[in-house]
Structure to design on (512 residues):
């Protein structure tokens, strides 16, 4: 096997690996390990970590709740303008997150198109709240669920469902017992990607929800705020994010997608 | 591979072309973000007009970030800082010459035009439920804001009202202009007519205000030290000072 791979491929792949991993190694090298305890405490690591987990997991759940039905419509229904709809739904993947944040402000901020009404009628304000951070994060991570789920749905042979319904299964029963089990790995892959993206979300969150420790300051925001006043603390916060993201991408992805 | 190699060579050639073709002198000025409109709209073009063949390149960011960049990359000719602290840092490493103070800036409270928090004075920032947006600690304007709140005797109450610690002055203005927060504290220059933001200013009395003094200097090792000194002469001269005043700064 190995001898069949041409040497230039090995070399270029090697350069690629070094390019991506060098900054991570440099973080480990530069971290002031001697005062790790004081650094972590000073940078408010546990508070930011807790908030990051709350925000990213809730955003992933919301992404699944809204993204899976959306993927279903995109994959299965014959509505007009479907490709335009898909482009709009997937847009946050390519959009700079800060643009998403400005858009969310214009829509759901206290002075926004819809937010104005929400505030006047219910006294409901999303900006500067944890829910604001969750919504901003959902905005950027939901498209990953939609894309993965739609691809999964398209790859499923519809004859299984036809067979189920010929055998007397209701549509709801066949979704639950036939489609969802076959969709499982793709759904899990989408959820894990969305979760990993949610952990790293920065631009939309700081623009829409602001930056306050314990309320909207997730790990990436904490890294940004401490990077000048406490560079050592910022490195440790970054390393927490790196370890967490690797754990999500490697462990969870392998476990969920290869279980079958 | 056969198709990729020419493509890469072409890209390398293209990249090599940038900036080296003409013989203009590039003066690199690292300046605090609060100076950006005054420097890009007036002072930069006026200086270029006086010095033919010179292009002034500005790098605007928070002064602390600029000091860190100068220390790690060292490519600046001129450093214009929003606080003496960060000029001191650069003076220690890599060193500066020709240092002088060239402008002053006052803190001012800003509210959305409809003033939802009913802010009429700095003491009102202590009222319960006021949504206060400040720049983060460590950012000069963030530190000065907290100093003014301490001078007014409402440091703790105001800190409890903070809903967001923003990364720079512009972000504070943006959060207030969009109506999200009830009040913010920024430099007067951030909301000068030229900045064109939709906010209302509430003055902070002189006895509690923190007036920022801006130093400027030639960075040691500057590629164009003579031109850098000329730039400082222009900024501290009558024309430069007049431009700065127009943009909300006070002369020194």
């Amino acid at each position: 096997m190995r001898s069949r791979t041409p040497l230039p491929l090995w070399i270029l792949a090697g350069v690629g690996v070094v390019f991506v991993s060098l900054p991570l190694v440099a973080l480990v090298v530069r971290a002031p390990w001697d005062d790790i305890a004081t650094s972590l405490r000073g940078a408010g690591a546990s508070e930011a970590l807790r908030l990051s987990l709350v925000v990213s997991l809730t955003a992933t759940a919301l992404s699944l709740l809204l993204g899976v039905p959306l993927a279903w419509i995109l994959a299965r229904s014959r509505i007009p303008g479907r490709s335009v709809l898909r482009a709009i739904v997937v847009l946050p993947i390519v959009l700079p997150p800060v643009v998403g944040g400005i858009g969310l402000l214009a829509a759901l901020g206290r002075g926004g198109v819809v937010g104005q009404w929400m505030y006047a009628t219910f006294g409901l304000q999303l900006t500067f709240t944890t829910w604001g951070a969750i919504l901003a994060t959902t905005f950027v991570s939901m498209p990953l669920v939609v894309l993965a789920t739609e691809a999964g749905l398209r790859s499923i042979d519809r004859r299984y469902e036809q067979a189920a319904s010929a055998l007397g299964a209701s549509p709801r029963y066949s979704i639950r017992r036939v489609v969802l089990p076959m969709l499982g790995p793709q759904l899990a892959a989408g959820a894990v990607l969305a979760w990993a993206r949610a952990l790293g979300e920065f631009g939309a969150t700081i623009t829409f929800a602001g930056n306050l420790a314990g309320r909207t300051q997730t790990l990436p925001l904490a890294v940004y705020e401490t990077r000048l006043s406490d560079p050592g603390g910022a490195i440790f916060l970054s390393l927490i994010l790196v370890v967490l993201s690797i754990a999500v991408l490697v462990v969870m992805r392998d476990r969920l997608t290869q279980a079958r | 591979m056969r198709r990729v190699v020419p493509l890469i060579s072409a890209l390398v050639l293209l990249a090599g072309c940038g900036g080296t073709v003409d013989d203009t002198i590039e003066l690199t000025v690292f300046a605090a973000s609060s100076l950006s409109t005054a420097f890009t709209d007036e002072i930069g073009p006026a200086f270029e007009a006086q010095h033919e063949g010179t292009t002034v390149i500005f790098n605007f960011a928070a002064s602390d970030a600029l000091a860190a960049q100068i220390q790690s990359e060292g490519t600046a000719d001129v450093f214009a800082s929003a606080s003496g602290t960060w000029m001191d840092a650069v003076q220690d490493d890599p060193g500066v010459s020709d240092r002088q103070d060239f402008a002053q800036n006052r803190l001012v409270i800003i509210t959305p035009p409809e003033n939802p928090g009913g802010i009429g004075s700095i003491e009102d920032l202590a009222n319960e439920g006021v949504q206060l947006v400040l720049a983060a600690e460590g950012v000069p304007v963030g530190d000065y804001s907290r100093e003014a709140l301490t001078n007014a005797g409402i440091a703790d109450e105001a800190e409890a009202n903070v809903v967001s610690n923003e990364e720079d002055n512009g972000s504070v203005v943006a959060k207030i202009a969009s109506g999200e927060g009830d009040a913010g504290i920024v430099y007067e220059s951030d909301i000068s007519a030229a900045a064109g933001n939709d906010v209302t200013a509430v003055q902070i009395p002189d006895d509690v205000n923190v007036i920022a003094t801006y130093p400027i200097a030639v960075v040691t090792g500057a590629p164009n030290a003579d031109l850098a000194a000329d730039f400082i002469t222009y900024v501290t001269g009558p024309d430069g000072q007049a431009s700065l005043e127009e943009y909300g700064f006070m002369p020194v």
Observations:
- Chain B touches chain A at residues 1, 62, 64-65, 68, 112, 131, 133, 136-138, 162-167, 175, 178-181 (CB under 8 Å).
- Chain B has nine helices and ten strands.
- Strands of chain B lie at 25-32, 54-61, 78-80, 96-105, 107-111, 132-135, 162-166, 183-187, 200-203, 212-219.
- The radius of gyration of chain B is 21 Å.
